Amino acid sequence: NLPTSIRQLVSLPKTVMVRSAILICIGTVSSPVSHRCKRMITKVKKTLVELDVPNSAKIAVAFSGGCDSSALLHALLSLSKTNDYTVCAIHINHCLRGDESDADERFTKQICAEYGIEFHSYSVNVNEESLKSGESTELCARRLRYNVFDGFVEF
User: Fold this and answer.
1) pLDDT 10s digits, 10-44
2) Cut 0.90: pTM above it
3) Cα 116 to chain centroid, rounded
4) Which residues, at least 6 apart from 143, have a Cβ–Cβ distance to it below 8 Å?
């Protein structure tokens, strides 16, 4: 059975286009993984090896709650079973869509709670900052997001 929040996500109208991808890539941690997802997990594992990521690494995933970041989170969580990886999720609430942005944040937090994934959430006011800086909304959102990621990573 899918976790409640996944069932809720699949039932939302805005996710109709990504429904099959979510069902293919997320499933439950203990469920059999589809052939497509196995290929993706293999690619992620290969990339980690190429980057020389140690088995004991803590890997942070930028987690929007969308299909791509959900699939990546799932792949890393699957790999963490056979390696000693610790996976955590970072969600950035750009505060651009009001209640929808807040709902995305709650959703990502709920998914992480269901899977036992360490969760970090940060809010950045892109509209306010872009007015101050004169940047486009997109450029400002990227800069603020990268600032959060840079501050999160400890070297």
Assistant:
1) 444 333 333 333 333 444 444 455 666 788 888 88
2) no
3) 14
4) 135
